[in-house]
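Researcher: Go.
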Amino acid sequence: MDIHNLTDLIANQGFPIALSILLIFRIDRFMQEIVTAQKDGYRQILENTKEIHNTITTLNQQNREYCSLRFTEVQKELSGMKVELGKIE
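Model: Structure:
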């Protein structure tokens, strides 16, 4: 095998192999960046979901407290009306 055949073999076989290896490494790095970005996105979504859950829980508690207070006021008012109705009879 002479040098000309060897250079033709390297040019015809070696370059596509080297290019393929280079592209595989670049694609691998790109995929790792995608996975990292996806994990960060999931983490942010989870944090936002927790914040929304806490806000809704707080609003529900405030609503329950308001309704309970309002119900107590209405009961007192109705009790007063019963007393007044009892006096009318």
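Model: The radius of gyration is 38 Å.
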